[in-house]
Design a protein that fits this description.
The longest helix has 17 residues, at 28-44. The protein is globular and about 30 Å long. It is of the alpha+beta class and 92 residues long. The protein has a 4-stranded mixed beta sheet, with helices on one face. 35% of the residues lie in helices and 21% in strands. The chain has one domain (19-91): Glutaredoxin. It has helices at residues 28-44, 57-63, 84-91; strands spanning 19-23, 48-52, 69-72, 75-79. The protein contains 3 helices and 4 strands. Helix 1 (28-44) packs across helix 3 (84-91).
Length: 92
Amino acid sequence: MTGNHDIGPTELGESPPRVVLYGKPGCHLCDDAREIIAGVCAELGESFDEVDITTSEDLMRRYGEQIPVTFVDGEQHDFWRVDPARLRAALV
């Protein structure tokens, strides 16, 4: 997981990942969400990034009770659970 919660273009000018998972270590729901996100993203040729909310008091305040929180294209998509069909539909 990264601590960078301001996801933007990479140093190489590539677009940032379309999917971002906000979670924290030891969160079993985050582990479940990561598995679903990785599968859907691999199927569709997309990448995803993870943000560890424990690296920021602000992120802990915002998402601590909702993790895992999934963003797609910069907009909050889901929290607590990730529905693979819903995620797939958002990415196509």
